[in-house]
Design goal:
heterodimer, A: about 550 residues, alpha+beta, ABC transporter involved in vitamin B12 uptake, BtuC, 3 domains, two-stranded antiparallel sheet, 21 helices, 7 strands, about 5% strand, globular, disordered C terminus, B: about 425 residues, alpha/beta, Rossmann fold, 5-stranded parallel sheet, 13 helices
Chain lengths: ~550, ~425
């Protein structure tokens, strides 16, 4: 509270100065600007406050530049400038006037340092200044910034903004900010209790933090809120908010479970073909995923170098590229190694394991041991805020969609294409298929290539959420085998159900058992399950299995 | 295919022949140093850089006429992020190659694994990474930060007005000895500062954990209980990238819930878009962004050696640099590479820090170094927002764990002990 008072007093002081001495405003701007370069963060924060309170037309660009780390001091003459990145150095503009001052080298400037505390002050200040912005997104940000700062002198501007607001979404955010500000600063308890009631409609973590802040007790057991009636109203509001949040939490867990499941599905589905359908224990499966991820990296490098404008579409090119590259590698492996080892699972296991080490080291030698940066396109960054406390991240949403699409395409390929028919024929009865004129060797190679290619596409998706390093595949190989065995060897539907149920179980266990123990429990459950049903969830029946 | 395999075998045989050749050459005019860093496996991402740093230092030393009139030669082995293999490789370096000193290890598990070997064979290990403390071996010099040079100042900063005044803490870590011990010390420290156990959440994840959705939402929930919350992360290695990606995507802003990390440096941030992470913190004794002439020279030397202007420098590299320089100075002073003589010469050895000031080797085998706290910038650099005025003396045994507070590490007379409550030798009077 005393901090709030100080801020209030400062603002009042600044407002007075502006009212009484309009001509001094410019001098005030220069002074505040100078204060931003001070060593003490308290003085810097006060300068930000006063810049925002003055409302000088240069305040917004200065504060925005400060927030973005673009505010510099020229070493030579201590003039404060706003800089734009240029290949050789910076193009600089005078902060006071906006006048262009030409280009300088990076070494000629000293950055005006900002930290989290100042960032918060700048955002609050900018919020107050941009409440009347023409851009609805900016108004929304402004409303949220004002919600956080909750200062008494914002009530009138908020009310005015609420009256003229046409966008219902922004209006809701403004209402939320107004209620929070009234709760924090109003004197009479009726207004505050009304504000608490109004906040019930906004069940999100920030509001919960605000309301439960009233009920926190300090060292001597004194509650933060002294008024018992307000406390009672706060407790009621909190209960309502928590009920909503708990419900949203369950939905979030389901989403997270499906999302984990879809990652498992992507990683396992290629294996479901090579291991499930062909019966090859391919320990190098994870490395196919890894090669797919590195293909994405390579494609993005090309995009960065040649078509930087189209970077957002790089993944669309990376998907077929990864499929082709890993598919060809897969065919190579099948023709070069695995075809000599059919029917000898132990040797296949050892050979493919050795191969996985070779591939890892090869990638390490070519691309280096450090992680490679694979960029997220804009449409995969950020999150969709469905409701308070329920944010679905875009990258996960897209991966769920992608996994289901890959699954559907694969099913269609096996069901409806001529190649799919041949593949099913070969796996069900090789001699018969062969005598019908099917080139079984060719089908084997294609099937292995298909499984590997799908693993490569999984790599594209995983590059968006995991490290692109030579070890990428190792993290998924065990999980993939688990999914295939659990779902039922040789059955793609089993893989789908297996992956999703493992994902869900994992995510519902994690909050209680922790990530480490959760994984162990899942593993034990699967072992027990396999004891009971050795062929997994969806067992294939018939003669082919018995043999 | 066959010919490819034959070719590969041929190359391997050639490689063996080459290394064998240099080993045979080992004569009186060569001083050998061992490099024990993983060049493959999960830790390769971090450790390969340190191998290159040692090679660069050796190269520089040889260009300036070597040591004691002899050429210095680095013997590089690859323990492959496999902890027991570290012990085998350490034995190979000490017994087989008879190296004068070893620079190596990153994770505390690997250090614990080689410790008995170094003590048995009286070797000398320079360990360049920040760690959990609670150890002082006669045969190890710890040039990374102890908890009082990293973890404690970082938490103090978070609790200060500039750091946001945090009153509630989430301790996230990878499940092994370093995070668990560090968090034990931190919990004791926080309790000492009046923060109750209800306001501390601890969570451990396996190495290479990649699905952070639940944990990040849990942190969000924990933070919305009316008190300012901060996250202290001892997550190690690869797992950091998906963790930070999830933080960015779920929109956790540094102003609301700052995350301070002890194992994330410039190298780990290299694989990340740091735009959404601006303002999250890291605590180290060195940042690449620090402006000083020595640092500029070091970065230039590194870029020239590695042949890539984009490579970053980081704290463990500085620790390796300081350790190597100190060892070379100590060897010169002792006039021999004999382990006992060099150890004696190490105490009080000084090397200028890359960030200004001077690093001093203390009798407890830990350095005095400045502590820096920095915020992540959108270009992947970390910029200092707070630093200590003076160097902080590394403390082997934490003052915040009651049973450790009693212990003293001092390898000079009359103590000559790494974990004693009283000196080993009593001066007769």
């Amino acid at each position: 509270m005393p901090a709030l008072f100080k801020v209030f007093r400062l603002r009042l002081l600044a407002a007075l100065i502006v009212l009484l001495l309009p001509s001094v405003a410019l001098a005030g701007l220069a002074e505040d600007l100078q204060a931003l370069t001070d060593k003490s963060n308290a003085i810097k924060a006060a300068a930000v406050e006063s810049l925002a309170a003055d409302g000088h037309e240069r305040a917004v660009p200065i504060l925005q530049a400060f927030l973005a780390g673009r505010l510099f001091e020229v070493k030579e003459d201590d003039r404060i400038v706003i800089a734009e990145d240029r290949a050789a150095g910076y193009r600089i503009f005078d902060a006071m006037t906006g006048e262009a001052l030409g280009e300088v080298g990076k070494r000629a400037l000293r950055k005006v340092r900002i930290n989290n505390r100042l960032r918060q002050a700048v955002k609050a200040g900018l919020g107050a200044l941009t409440l009347a912005s023409a851009d609805p997104a900016a108004r929304r940000h402004a409303a949220d910034a004002v919600f956080r700062s909750a200062q008494a002198d914002m009530i009138a501007p908020l009310e005015a903004a609420l009256v003229r607001e046409s966008d219902p979404k922004v209006a809701a955010r403004l209402g939320r900010a107004l209620a929070a500000t009234e709760l924090a600063t109003a004197d009479d308890k009726v207004t505050r209790i009304t504000a608490l009631k109004a906040l019930e409609a906004f069940a999100d973590p920030d509001v919960r933090a605000l309301v439960s802040g009233l009920l926190v007790t300090d060292g001597e057991g004194q509650p933060a809120e002294r008024d018992a009636d307000v406390r009672a109203a706060a407790a009621e509001t909190l209960k309502a908010i928590e009920a909503t949040l708990a419900f949203n939490g369950v939905i979030a867990s389901i989403f997270q479970g499906i999302s984990l499941g879809s990652v498992l599905l992507l990683a396992a589905i290629g294996l479901a073909i090579t291991f499930g359908v062909m019966g090859v224990i391919n320990m190098a499966h994870g490395e196919m995923v890894m090669i797919g991820a590195y293909t994405t990296f390579a494609v993005q490098e090309v995009f960065r170098a040649s078509f930087p404008g189209a970077f957002d579409y790089s993944l669309l090119v990376a998907i077929p590229a990864a499929f082709l590259v890993t598919g060809l590698v897969g065919i190579g492996i099948e023709r070069g190694i695995i075809r000599f080892l059919y029917g000898r699972p132990l040797e296949t296991l050892l050979a493919t394991w050795g191969l996985s080490l070779i591939l890892q080291q090869m990638v390490r030698s070519i691309f280096g041991p450090t992680n490679r940066e694979v960029g997220n396109p804009a449409w995969m960054s950020g999150a969709w805020e469905v409701a308070g406390g329920l944010t679905l991240t875009y990258n996960r949403l897209w991966i769920i969609l992608f996994a289901l699409m890959v699954f559907a395409l694969l099913m269609a390929l096996i069901r409806f294409s001529g190649y799919g028919l041949q593949m099913r024929a070969v796996t069900q009865n090789r001699p018969m298929a062969s005598s019908m004129g099917i080139r079984t060797g060719w089908v084997d190679a294609m099937t292995f290539g298909l499984g590997s290619g799908i693993a490569g596409m999984a790599g594209v998706a995983l590059s968006q959420i995991d490290n692109v390093s030579p070890n990428l595949g190792q993290g998924y190989i065990i999980d993939s085998f688990m999914v295939v065995v659990f779902g039922g060897v040789g059955n793609l539907w089993g893989t789908l159900v297996g992956a999703l149920s493992l994902g869900l179980v994992n995510k519902f266990l994690e909050p209680y058992a922790g990530a480490v123990l959760g994984k162990i429990i899942v593993l034990v459950v699967i072992i027990l399950f396999i004891q009971k049903r050795p062929r997994g969830l969806f067992a294939l029946r018939g003669r082919a299995v018995e043999s | 295919m066959k010919s490819v395999i034959r070719g590969a075998i041929g190359a391997a045989a050639l490689a063996v022949a080459v290394t064998g050749g240099t080993a045979a050459q080992a004569a009186d005019d060569v001083i050998k140093v061992g490099v024990l860093h993983s060049l493959s496996g999960t830790m390769a991402i971090s450790e390969t850089t340190l191998k290159d740093t040692v090679l660069m230092m050796v190269d520089e030393l040889n260009k300036n006429g070597g040591l004691l009139g002899k050429r210095v030669e680095a013997v590089v082995v690859d323990p492959a992020s496999d902890w027991p293999l570290f012990a085998e490789k350490a034995r190979e370096l000490l017994e087989g190659e008879e190296v004068a000193a070893v620079f190596g290890c990153w994770t505390s598990v690997s250090r614990k694994s080689v410790l008995p070997v170094f003590e048995e064979l009286n070797g000398l290990l320079f360990y360049p990474v920040q760690y959990e403390g609670e150890e002082s071996s006669r045969n190890v010099f710890y040039t990374g930060a102890a908890p009082n040079q990293q973890a404690i100042p970082a938490v103090e900063y978070l609790m200060s007005e500039d750091g946001g005044g945090a009153e509630r803490f989430v301790l996230l870590g990878t499940d092994y000895v370093y995070p668990r011990t560090t968090n034990k010390i931190l919990r004791a420290f926080l309790n000492d500062k009046g923060i109750s156990d209800d306001d501390i959440m601890e969570n451990y994840t396996p190495f290479g954990h990649s699905d952070w959705q639940t944990i990040v939402s849990d942190v969000k929930g924990f933070a919305s209980q009316g008190k300012k919350t901060a996250v202290v992360s001892t997550i190690n290695g690869d797992a950091n990238v998906p963790f930070y990606k999830e933080l960015g995507n779920q929109g956790i802003k540094a102003e609301e819930i700052p995350v301070v990390a002890f194992s994330v440096g410039e190298e780990e941030l290299a694989g990340l878009d740091t735009g959404p992470l601006v303002g999250h913190l890291a605590a180290w004794n060195y940042f690449m962004s620090v402006e000083s002439d020595v640092n500029d020279g070091f970065i230039e030397q590194w870029h020239a050696f590695i042949g890539n202007e984009d490579r970053v420098t980081n704290d463990p590299m500085e620790a390796t640099y300081i350790g190597f320089k100190m060892w070379a100075q100590a060897v010169k002073q002792a006039g021999s590479t004999d382990v006992d003589a060099v150890r004696q010469a190490m105490y009080g050895q000084t090397v200028p820090n890359l960030t200004g000031g001077t690093a001093v080797m203390n009798a407890n085998h830990h350095l005095s170094k400045p502590v820096l706290i920095g915020e992540i910038q959108d270009d992947g650099m970390i910029e200092t927002v707070w630093s200590t005025d003076k160097e902080v003396v590394g403390d082997a045994w934490s003052d915040f764990i009651p049973e450790s507070a009693k212990l003293t590490a001092d390898w000079t007379y009359p103590w000559v002990c790494g974990n004693c409550e009283a000196p080993k030798y009593v001066t007769a009077n």
